[in-house]
Amino acid sequence: MMRHNSGPDNDQWPAKAAWPLQALTLLFALVAIGCNGNSSRQGGGPNPATPALAVTTVALSPAEVGLAYSFTLQASGGKGSYTWSVSSGSLPAWASLDAATGAITGMPDADAITNFSIKVTDEDEHVSASPTLSLVVNPALAISTTSLPDGAIGVPYGTRLAATGGIAPYSWALSGGSWPGWANLDSTTGIIHGIPDSADTSTFTVEVTDNLTAHGASDTQELSLSIAAAPGQVSNPSLSGSYAFLLQGFDDATGSQFAIAGSFTADGRGNVTSGLVDSNGPGGYLPAVPFTGTYSLGSDNRGLATFTSPEGGSIKLALAVGSLNSDNIATKASLIKFDDTGGDGQRGSGFAYRQEPGAFNLSSAAGPHAFEFVGQGKGPGSRIALAGAFTADESGNVTSGQVDANVGGIMAGGNFTATISADSHTASFGRLTASSTGASMPSFVAYVVARDRLLALSVDPEATWGLVAGDVLAQASTSFSLASLQGTAVAYSAGLSPMFYLQDSSASVGLWTFNGAGSASSRLDWTEGWMAAWQGWFETLGPMAASWRYSVSPNGRVSLTDADGQLAAIDYLVDANKGFSMSADGESTAGFFEPQMGGPFSNAVLFGNYFLGTVAPAVTCSAVASGTGASVGDGTLSLTLDRSDASSLVLGGQSASLNFAINATGRGLEISSSPGVLYFVSPTRILLVTDPSEEDCPRISILEQ
Question: Measured between alpha carbons, how far is 691 from 699 in angstroms, rounded to an integer?
C-alpha cells in the first residue's frame, strides 16, 4: 500500500516516555474535563450566559388632560430585580416613576410634549438606558359643535359633528333625548344625514368617545335640530322652458356605472310639467319613461328637484343654475343625484342645457359632428373612452363615421355607419335614436339641445357591450388642417391612474400651446389619488411641461405623439383650438380643450358670482357637487356646495373657502387650505381641480357666470 510522504510509519512513533511534558499536561487536562462531565460528548455544555440588560420600551402611550395616566416601562435580560430612574431630562411635574415597577403614573393637567430618557439597573448594577422618549399629553376631548343648521321638509339634510382634543379616531353615538326618526348618525364620521319628513324641533344629546388605549375618554353635548316647511321659491322663475340633461355616475350596490339622458319642461313656478328620460345601467336599459316633478330654487340660485314617473319611482337632484339670458332665464344648470343616503343608491353628476324647440327635428343631426363618450366596459372597474366624427345627411344617414376607442388602455376603432331616426317623442322633447354598425360604435339615443349640440346615451346592454354617454357637437368645418391648432388652449381630462384596481383616479387641467405647423407644448397640473377601505393617498404634480408633435386629418382627427414618437392621444376638433381629447394609454382619460381668452389674468379677474358643477366621475370614490361661488377680486373664492360623496352621504349647503394666487397665464394655485389649482378659460369660465379629502378622489369642477 502506498503511504503519504508527509507522515511517518506507525512503528516510527517515539515511545510514550519520550513525550514532552507539555503534551502530558494537555492530556491530563482533557481527561479532567471529561471526568467532570463538561465535555459535550458527555451530554453537557458551557454555562449559559446571562442575556444583556436592555430597555425594550421605545414609545409611550399618549396621555390626555384630566384622565389618570399609567404606563409601565419594560426591559429584558440582566439579573434579578430592576431599579428604574430618569437618566436625562425630567418627567412632567404631574407624573411620577415607581423605581421598583417602572410604572409612570399621574394626572395630566396641561397639554404638552415632554422628552426624557429612562434607565434600568439590575442586581449586578448593569445599566441600560432608553432612547429619548416623548410623553404626549393631548387636550381634553371636547365636542366643538354647539349648534346645528336648520333643515326643511323634503330637502336632504347633512352636517358633520366635530370634536377637538383626545386621541383619534373618534366614535359618535346618541346618548339621550328625542332623536328625529328620519335622521341617521354615522358613528365613524359624526355625520347626521337623512331627508326630513315633518316640521318640528328635536332636542337630543350626542356623545363622542376617543381612542385612548386604557379607556376611551368621552364628552357629551345637547343639540337642537329644527325642521321647517319647504323653503320659499324665490328664484323659481330663473328655471323656465325646456331643458335637455345628461347625468353619469356609479351604482353603490354593484359598482357599475349608470347614465340618464332626458328632457323636461319647467314652468318657472316650481313645477316640471312634462319630462321624458332614457336610462341605462346595471338594471338594464329603460327607454322613453315619462315623468313630472317639482323644483325649488333659493335666492343664491341653488335648489332641489324631484322627478317622479307615473310608472313608479323618483329621483332627487341638487342643482345650481346660471348663464342667465337677457330675460334672466338660466340657459345652463349643474346637476347631481341627491338621494344617495344608503348603500344601494346612485351617485352621479351632469349638466342641463336650455333647449331650442325649433331644433326638435332630424335635420339637427345633419352635417359634420364630433363626439366623445365615456363610461365602462362589460364589468365594474373597467373604463372606455370613445372619440370620433361623423357626417349625416338630412335624412339621418351616416356613411362616413370614424371612431377611436380606448378600452382599458387597448386602442381600437375604425369606420362606422349609422341611421339616425326621429320618433313620436322628437317634436315634444327633441329625442332621436341612432342604430350603428361598425367597429367600437354603440347604438344610442340622443336629446337635442340645439342645432349644434346633442346629449347621447348608449342603449346596448351594459353587461354585453358596456355603457357610455356624452356630448355630440356640430363641427365648424369639413376640412381641418394643422393651422386649425394655433395659439393657447385650456384643457381638462379625467380617467384612471395605473393603480385603477384600487379605485385610483387621475385629473388634470392646464395649458396647451400649438404653433399651427405640427408642434405643441403643454404645462399641466396632474392630481392622482385613490381610496381604499382603510386609507387614502393622493399626489399633485405640476405644472408638468412636455413637447409634442401633431397631425390633423380633414375630419378633425388629431394624432398627438410624444418626444419618443409614441402615440399619446387622439383628439377630434369641433372648431379652431377646440375639441375632445382622449389618451392612448391605460389611464383612458377623456376631456375637452378650448381657446383661452381674456388674459393676462390676476387675482382681480376672479370676481363676481359663479355656479359650479362636477365633471362626470371616472371612479366610484369620486364625490360630486353642485353649488355656487363668489369672489371680490382678492383671490378668495367662497363656495356653497351640495355634495354627495363616496360614503353614500348627501351634504347640503356645505361652505368652503379657497384662496388662490393667480398668475398672468390664468393658473391659480390654492395657497391656504385644501390643495387645488384653477385655470381661467375666460373671465367667466374657470376649470378647477381639487385634491381629495379623506372620503373621496380627485375631481374636476367647472365654474361659470
Answer: 7
Instruction: Check residue 157 and give its pLDDT.
Output: 81
Which helix (H) or strand (E) segment is 290 a member of? strand 286-297
The grid coordinates of residue 644 equal 354627495
What's domain 142-228's architecture?
A: Sandwich (2.60)
pLDDT digits (tens, 9 = 90+) for 400-452: 899 999 998 899 999 999 999 999 999 999 999 999 988 789 999 999 999 99
Residues 170, 143: Cα–Cα separation, whole Å = 11
CA distance to 316, 319, 527, 704, per residue, from 300 (Å): 19, 11, 30, 14
The C-alpha atoms of residue 9 and residue 57 are separated, in whole angstroms, by 66
pLDDT at 24 over 80: no
Residue type, 484: S
**Inter-residue contact 73 to 57 (CB < 8 Å):** yes
Q: Are 686 and 610 in contact (CB under 8 A)?
A: yes
Fold held by 54-138: Immunoglobulin-like (2.60.40)
User: Topology of 237-474 in CATH?
Assistant: Lipocalin (2.40.128)
Which pTM was predicted? Answer: 0.73
Measured distance CA(485)–CA(513) in Å, rounded: 9
What sign for the dihedral angle of Cα 601, 607, 609, 612? positive
Is the omega angle on the peptide bond into residue 231 within 30 degrees of 0, that is, cis? Answer: no
Tens-digit pLDDT profile for residues 563-597: 899 999 999 999 999 999 999 988 889 999 999 99
Fold agreement (142-228, 237-474): no
- Count the helices and strands in the chain (H runs, E runs): 2, 51
Q: What is the 3-state secondary structure (H, E, C) of 414-483?
A: EEEEEEEEECCCHHHHCEEEEEEEECCCCCEEEEEEECCEEEEEECCCCCCCCEEEEEEEECCCCCCCHH
Residue 499 DSSP class:
T
Phi and psi at residue 28, in whole multiples of 5°? -60, -35
* Span 598-638, pLDDT tens digits: 999 999 999 999 999 999 988 877 789 999 999 989 999 99
- Residues 495-514 have pLDDT tens digits of 886 544 444 678 889 999 99
Domains of the chain, residue spans: 54-138, 142-228, 237-474
